[in-house]
Amino acid sequence: MGNQIKTIALLGLLSILLITLGRMLGGVGGMYIGLLFALVMNGVSYFYSDKIALKMSGAKPVSQKEMPELYGIVVDLSKKMDLPMPKLYMTPERQANAFATGRDPNHASVAVTAGILDVLSKEELKAVLAHELGHVRNRDILVASVAAVIASAISFMGNMAMWGSFGRSRDDEDSGGGAFALLAAILVPIGASLIQLAISRQREFGADETGARTIGNGEPLAKALVAIHDSAKAHPMRTNPAFSSLYIGNPLGGLGGGLMKLFSTHPPVEERVARLKKIH
Predict the structure, then answer these.
(1) Residues β-bridged to residue 60
(2) Which listed residue (66, 69, 124, 132) is catalytic?
(3) Structural domain boundaries in the chain
(4) Is 259 exposed, middle or buried (0-12, 13-18, 19+ CB in 10 A)?
(5) Alpha carbons 202 and 15: distance in angstroms, whole number
(6) Per-residue pLDDT tens over the stretch 255-278
(7) Rounded Cα gap, residues 240 and 259, in angstroms
(8) Fewest beta carbons within 10 Å, which of 89, 147, 194, 203?
């Protein structure tokens, strides 16, 4: 519940930034133009990002006959979580990883890499799949899409304001209005991007908790996350950074702790493991 509240608070903060920047730089009309542009751009992504992600990862459909154990785990978890059975896929990557995509539970897909089957035990694999179905049940693709719409609208207005600031008169610049608008146009979109990344990290915490509570223990997922993190370092994945947030572990490698975690789509593994070990 705490992760949900934090996500709602972050989305609310994004909305405040959108309204404030819109009124300050472009008025109500500018805000609506930016929002409309973002809705169209991210609306297409919302409905087709699953197909794009699966194609770019080289994922192939997996049938019950081909992989009965994997299929059986997902069937059991889907029933336990009261979800429709998602489509199953496998990618050829040696790195141990997995991701879920799809705009809602009725259009969900779960993909695992070939490498994950060589690295994880059955219980650890079950925990990873419960995490991915947690994303589906929590409708995280929808949450991410809403955040992307708002952040994109802010970025659009910021870019428009930056270009407009170059055409301001000398009087405007002398009054400080032009400099203030330019500073806001630069800093507010950066702030929006950081909030969007924070939402992504909160959704990972949420899926961790959902997955762990579904199987009744956080230890298997904690062990799986460490193994996936090690595998990502041993076998770096060449993937579009735009889709890296879909994976349970950052396929590009982590950025470390401290301030660097602010720029990551995933929380530090150590923090995720510490939270999971508290779930029994």
Answers:
(1) 90
(2) 132
(3) 2-276
(4) exposed
(5) 17
(6) 555 666 778 889 999 999 999 999
(7) 23
(8) 194
